[in-house]
Amino acid sequence: MRVAFAGTPEFAAMALESLLEAGHDVPLVLTQPDRPAGRGMQLQISAVKQLALKNAIPVLQPLSLRLNGTHAEAARETIHLLEAARPDVMVVVAYGLILPAEFLHIPAFGCLNIHASLLPRWRGAAPIQRAIEAGDKKTGITIMQMDEGLDTGPILMQEELPILPGDTASSMHDKLAILGGNTICCALKMLKRKGALRSRPQEESLASYAPKLMKDEAILDFSLPAETIANKIRAFNPFPGTQATFGETSLKIWKADALPETSPQHAGSIIAADIGNGIMVACGSGVLRITEIQKPGSKRLPASEFIKGFSLDNGRFS
Question: In this protein, which residues make up the domain named Formyl transferase N-terminal (predicted)?
Fold first, then answer.
């Protein structure tokens, strides 16, 4: 099939690679404009653009797709080029721009979105992280027929994936990226064979939203249950990482697990810090065992190594 593609980060690039490996003809790719990043703030091209250029696929990078306002002319030119590409379908994955209605109906089979949750749960920008933070036991991939709403279109296909106790946002990202590529290829294979896919509407009463992670959310509150804190640590790994202050030092907490033990000490108090057990912290309920931690200007360390060079005696996280 002729598959136009819109996406930006590594998650989307893995889907594009799957489409190419499956033999689909990709005549055009849309991705976010190059933006400065890193310490040197040099212009960086997206993972999708890198893959498209490697495969000699034309790339469009409009600042906006709105047909009114400052960038309306560029948006109209994008529509013209998309129409000229004559795609059978357009696959959209973590693109970062809202597609107006004028775009949705250009491909013969419309626009299909790969979303990293079991819709209608976790619509929005951070479905992987919010699922882990909420303590969900499973997530998955949804292939959705796009409409004008935010992840509200009819569901065409879903594949589930368990969230294991040790999974972080990073590990689930990689698993779901592979599953997303496989699932969209399966959907397109069925679409080509049958000429249509059976859809079902989303149940609005079950909808929940996954807003973008904000850095001020990363500060840990030890008055909460240990399990809640451990989930947040996994959800915010690798970005933005969770933080806790010890004295005047802000520490990054990268890995921890919740223990059902109880402690009479105040929330945030260090119960124990030793090579065998890691750093044990009293919480609102339960105990948090920190196993990987980082101080400013240093690398991540196992807690057993960290405590050799950082005294936690008679201290408390705040």
Answer: 1-183
Query: Do the annotations mark residue 97 as ligand-binding?
Result: no
Topology, domain 215-309: Methionyl-tRNA Fmet Formyltransferase; Chain A, domain 2 (3.10.25)
Helix (H, G, I), strand (E, B) or coil at 185: helix
Q: pLDDT tens for residues 293-305?
A: 999 999 999 999 9
Q: 51: which 2 tokens?
A: 């893959």
- Is there a contact between 265 and 282 (Cβ–Cβ < 8 Å)? yes
pLDDT band at 311 (very low <50, low <70, confident <90, very high): confident
φ, ψ for residue 30 (rounded to 5)? -110, 135
Work out the angle at residue 67's Cα, subtended by the Cα atoms of residues 61 and 70, and round it to the nearest 5 degrees: 75
Task: State yes or no: 118 annotated in a binding site.
Answer: yes
Q: How many CB atoms are closer than 10 A to CB 145?
A: 16
Q: Which residue has the tokens 């948006």?
A: 75
Topology of domain 3-206, per CATH? Rossmann fold (3.40.50)
